[in-house]
Amino acid sequence: MLTYTIRRLAFAVPTLLVISFLIFGILDLAPSDPTAQLPLTIPPEVREKIRLSLGLGDPFIVRYFKWLVQFMVNEPLNILEQWTGWTIGDGERLRVLSWQTRSPVVDLIVQRMPQTLWVVGMSYVVGIVIAIPIGVISAYRQYSWFDQFGTLFSMVGFSIPTFFTGLLFIVIFSVTLGWLPSIYDTTLVVEDWDSFVAQVKQMIMPTMVLGLYNASQLSRFMRASVLDNLNQDYVRTARAKGMTEKVVLLIHVLRNSMIPVVTVIALNLPQVFGGAIITEQIFRVNGLGQLLIGAIEGGDIPTVQTLTFIFAVLIVVFNLIADVLYGILDPRIRYD
Amino acid sequence: MRLRNLLSATAAAAALGALAGPALAERGADGQVNIIYWQAVSILNPYLSGGTKDVEGASLVLEPLARYDETGTMVPWLVEEIPTVENGGVSEDLMSITWKLKPGLKWSDGSDVTAADAVFTADYCMDETGGCQQVANYADVASVEAVDDLTIKITFTVPKPVPYGPFVGAQSPILQAAQFADCKGAKAPECTDANFGPIGTGPYVVAEFKPNDVVVYEANPHYREADKPAFGSVLLKGGGDAVSAARSVMETGEFDYAWNMQVEPEILAQMEARGIGKVISAYGTSVERFEVNMTNPDPDLGDLRSTVEGGPHPFLTDPKVTRALSMAIDREILVEAGYGAAGQVTCNVLPAPDLFNSTANDWCKTPDVDGANALLDEAGWVVGSDGVREKDGVKLSLLYQTSTNSVRQGTQALIKQMWQEIGVETELRNISGSVFFGGDPSSPDTFQKLYADVEMFTNNFDGTDPEKYMANWRCSEIPSPKNNWLGGNNPRFCSEEYDALVQTLAGTAKIEERAEIAKQLNDMLMESGAIIPLIHRGRVAAMANTIEGHAMNPWDSELWDIASWSRAK
Amino acid sequence: MTDAAAVRPDADAAAAADAAAAKRRHSSPWRDVWAQFSSHRGALAGAAVFAFMLLVVLVGPFIHDVDPQKLDIRAKNQFMSWEHPLGTDNLGRDMLAQVMAGGQVSLAVGVTAMLLSVLLGTAIGVTAGFSRRLDGPMMRLTDLFLALPLLPLLLVIIMLFRDTLRQAFGPESGIFILIVFVIGITSWMQTARIVRGDVLALKEREFVLAARSVGAPGRRIITRHILPNVLSPIMVSATLGVANAIITESALSFLGLGFPSDFPTWGRLLYDGANFMTLTPDRVIWPGLAISLTVLSVNYIGDGLRDALDPRIRGR
């Protein structure tokens, strides 16, 4: 398993290079333009100058290598300098600058991490906490009322998109009842009990909207997987040996049912980082998802490239983690 | 699953309207005012981003020498008076203008404002390598000099009947030379601290800025009027969509002011009925219009598609056809369905200021389906078996494109039906705004390429003088592969007479004569059918009932008078 | 689509299964499958609902023959009435006619895109899980697809292929093919990874080892031993895939990348209606209900099908 992990890690580098090149190529081909959001009163010649000043006049390959050096060399060196206080070289390194804000993309990302990790991360926790018991009980008592209700709930939850549930929540809890704020305040600093309550209040709606959506998806996979395992011979054996139902269910079945669920969670965890575009928009959480969609709409190639590349790294890493977990959950799986 | 996450909101343009009330009290007495812009502010230096949201976000801090008030009149802001030929501020030959700063002005860091700051600002923007987005305001400037500490003299390369480009309006404010000294040219984008927290003369200073998210401002301790601003701080939040922004002002009351409410009127009316906030609007120069392709967009033409070389359009060059198309449209219905208080019927592409508004085309205000049908019959277009008119084997069938936005798609559907009644068949297409307005020469879907028969969007001009705007429809401005599709003449309208008249306009100084010429230019465009105006669009905003002292201004930054805002007791 | 409906009832009552299955003992495997399936109450109910939806969507427009595109601005934002059984939208279009017209597109897109995505995902997942040699490349390909920024990718695809397809198949079928392709090609990765994970575990199980040791060829092992055992996650993916495709289609149209704006689909109706939720709730209730019912019925059909194809359950 260790050699497998090391081999996979080594192989990840060329994979990521290829991915970064392809992403850059697609962004370059895409017809979005950094001047599209400017008012039409800015004349076409000025727009052309703006494009040139952003470096769009350079050939594709030059721009790609510029980004690669800025992201792979300059940014890590900057971080190193900040952490250690050393000065490496002359310190005059060009960082990856966003075209929209003209500021370093990495700073923007760091600024937006807290709200995304809190809101989106918490919604995954909520989702997993809800989904696993529902999935297990639904499968164990298949076709009971609990199962039927769970199915209805998760299907409706999945087929109604978050733009709708978010709006519904706002109409109910903000407009009609006036309990919760409809707009997330990113300037809030938690320092005492009151600000903590305010933070919890503003997190409730976005977290629940996303959490319910995640739960409805996850609980389906959980239920299906537990159902499969309940019919296996080993369960019969375990019962025959006189084990209690609790042990059978929670030790044997649950562990063996986790493979598809681990996959789904591993696929989704990078998306915690990617943010939740719609939910962030509705509640104005303005995290990484909103940064990405804003950058895409504004044709801000350096920001989109950097965000999607970091995203790609996370996907590769989490899929590797999932593969390792498979081996732990089911020792029969061997990669070597 | 990931795809559905991509749902998002599109962008549009517009702004607000209002009432004014007196505000006494002392600086900062009214606490905080919360403003929501559903497009978030990206940067607070308007020279590096011309986006409306960025210009307006910066306008709380940075100020020009003169600006436009809610009636479109130029008012002195950092100067004593507006220079004119009469008061000697503009030279007789129209080649230079001299501004006199008010004495005693301070930057928010306490230092003095001098003419050298204005000189620096002009140099900063006119630097070729800086990518300044407002450089059009400095067109034809030969030099800017500081005659003394308070006197700025701008010399032009050509006579300028309207010399109010540099340092006038929210797009062209004064920067502090000391702060931006090391940020000229290619280094401009690297000065993040300065671009995110410019030092200004305005009523507020930047306290906290999270790009594309939120700006927190605090009152400027050195602001020139001691009792202003009444609000000690301003929170300018961004993101989301227009409807929820309106909701936060008029239904939940979390915010006091929301910008650019392009929302279906019945939704706004329902929110307004709660009595917390109101919708305010004012009209500038924005017109939602059709630009009609005078050249042939047939895909079979390959590279010659939609170019003058590709030949004229098979039927849209006939003014009878375009007139019939215009007559068939019931503009009142378009206003009622999509605009409400934010739109008025217009028959001119140049609807404002009032002096410039022609009355020659008012026939379009009343829809006339029978008249349109008669006109087409007369022109020889016969209704075929499928209900679509045709002549010589050519069908009256149009591809109608616009940007993606729910109001525009509603308008598209309505017009399709109106045209159906006169035997015109329409295929609708909507294109993401970031592509449509993007101007990427490799994309077939930009508004300059116009690979369609007609396209609909809104345009306007800054300030109150239409000279630059009307010059868009000269022959030389036609977008084509030769100029990399850069040019403002999307209809590919070309008339020597028009070009000559634009030339005359540039040499005319008297305002009445200028208005007369501008009206003629407008009428020529209307008669040729190259442009079919639809709706004169206003700026619309939602404002809490408790806010006083705001006059909705369509000619400048919407937040131009924020120093006078206060909260009703 | 009609054929698809016929073969997929679904079930949610299992107790009756044993007795019914026991009756038809010595018949062909497919008869067994059908017997098991038709004894699954939920599956039958799901199939009935799905067939009913199809019927309404396909035959309904002939009974309620109002043009879904007909605007009547004087009759906008109306509630239910005899003339407009589901009310009208803010431009005065009849909602019932729109829901029915939208259903034809949404069901077609939902089912075909789901099939494409599930087939692709299963094929890649099984290959990668089964063949050690192909595992690396296939999974790196999956990583690549997961990492691609979709919106720019879509803009590129649409820019490159829209006009070609429009000329070859006409504006509507051209865009239909494009949308199904786009949704299919961008949503198979989850299925692939889940299937691969299961296959990795399955291929070390005794029965697969046994089959291998008696010399069964790889293809036969996959079809006879592996595939039936990974059906549950595939069925779940398929169910979720239908909902996903319907909603994604609305996102595409909304972004100006899908069908023209005067072409109603359920997702689009829901999206356009969301802002009118407090004014005319009908506008969101009906399309929302239609999507939920479709997904729910497909889910039960999937449940029944899985049970029917599972030899262990069938034997019970």
From TrEMBL, chain A:
<feature type="transmembrane region" description="Helical">
    <location>
        <begin position="247"/>
        <end position="267"/>
    </location>
</feature>
<dbReference type="Pfam" id="PF19300">
    <property type="entry name" value="BPD_transp_1_N"/>
</dbReference>
<dbReference type="GO" id="GO:0055085">
    <property type="term" value="P:transmembrane transport"/>
</dbReference>
<feature type="transmembrane region" description="Helical">
    <location>
        <begin position="307"/>
        <end position="329"/>
    </location>
</feature>
<dbReference type="Pfam" id="PF00528">
    <property type="entry name" value="BPD_transp_1"/>
</dbReference>
<keyword id="KW-0472">Membrane</keyword>
<feature type="domain" description="ABC transmembrane type-1">
    <location>
        <begin position="113"/>
        <end position="322"/>
    </location>
</feature>
<keyword id="KW-0812">Transmembrane</keyword>
<keyword id="KW-1003">Cell membrane</keyword>
<feature type="transmembrane region" description="Helical">
    <location>
        <begin position="117"/>
        <end position="140"/>
    </location>
</feature>
<feature type="transmembrane region" description="Helical">
    <location>
        <begin position="196"/>
        <end position="215"/>
    </location>
</feature>
<dbReference type="InterPro" id="IPR045621">
    <property type="entry name" value="BPD_transp_1_N"/>
</dbReference>
<feature type="transmembrane region" description="Helical">
    <location>
        <begin position="9"/>
        <end position="30"/>
    </location>
</feature>
<keyword id="KW-0813">Transport</keyword>
<protein>
    <submittedName>
        <fullName>Peptide/nickel transport system permease protein</fullName>
    </submittedName>
</protein>
TrEMBL record, chain B:
<feature type="signal peptide">
    <location>
        <begin position="1"/>
        <end position="25"/>
    </location>
</feature>
<dbReference type="GO" id="GO:0030288">
    <property type="term" value="C:outer membrane-bounded periplasmic space"/>
</dbReference>
<comment type="similarity">
    <text>Belongs to the bacterial solute-binding protein 5 family.</text>
</comment>
<dbReference type="InterPro" id="IPR000914">
    <property type="entry name" value="SBP_5_dom"/>
</dbReference>
<dbReference type="InterPro" id="IPR030678">
    <property type="entry name" value="Peptide/Ni-bd"/>
</dbReference>
<dbReference type="GO" id="GO:1904680">
    <property type="term" value="F:peptide transmembrane transporter activity"/>
</dbReference>
<protein>
    <submittedName>
        <fullName>Peptide/nickel transport system substrate-binding protein</fullName>
    </submittedName>
</protein>
<dbReference type="GO" id="GO:0015833">
    <property type="term" value="P:peptide transport"/>
</dbReference>
<dbReference type="InterPro" id="IPR039424">
    <property type="entry name" value="SBP_5"/>
</dbReference>
<dbReference type="Pfam" id="PF00496">
    <property type="entry name" value="SBP_bac_5"/>
</dbReference>
<dbReference type="GO" id="GO:0043190">
    <property type="term" value="C:ATP-binding cassette (ABC) transporter complex"/>
</dbReference>
<keyword id="KW-0732">Signal</keyword>
<feature type="domain" description="Solute-binding protein family 5">
    <location>
        <begin position="74"/>
        <end position="474"/>
    </location>
</feature>
TrEMBL record, chain C:
<keyword id="KW-0813">Transport</keyword>
<feature type="transmembrane region" description="Helical">
    <location>
        <begin position="141"/>
        <end position="161"/>
    </location>
</feature>
<keyword id="KW-0472">Membrane</keyword>
<dbReference type="Pfam" id="PF00528">
    <property type="entry name" value="BPD_transp_1"/>
</dbReference>
<dbReference type="InterPro" id="IPR000515">
    <property type="entry name" value="MetI-like"/>
</dbReference>
<feature type="domain" description="ABC transmembrane type-1">
    <location>
        <begin position="103"/>
        <end position="302"/>
    </location>
</feature>
<dbReference type="InterPro" id="IPR035906">
    <property type="entry name" value="MetI-like_sf"/>
</dbReference>
<feature type="transmembrane region" description="Helical">
    <location>
        <begin position="284"/>
        <end position="302"/>
    </location>
</feature>
<keyword id="KW-1133">Transmembrane helix</keyword>
<comment type="similarity">
    <text>Belongs to the binding-protein-dependent transport system permease family.</text>
</comment>
<feature type="transmembrane region" description="Helical">
    <location>
        <begin position="43"/>
        <end position="63"/>
    </location>
</feature>
<dbReference type="Pfam" id="PF12911">
    <property type="entry name" value="OppC_N"/>
</dbReference>
<dbReference type="GO" id="GO:0055085">
    <property type="term" value="P:transmembrane transport"/>
</dbReference>
<feature type="transmembrane region" description="Helical">
    <location>
        <begin position="226"/>
        <end position="247"/>
    </location>
</feature>
<keyword id="KW-0812">Transmembrane</keyword>
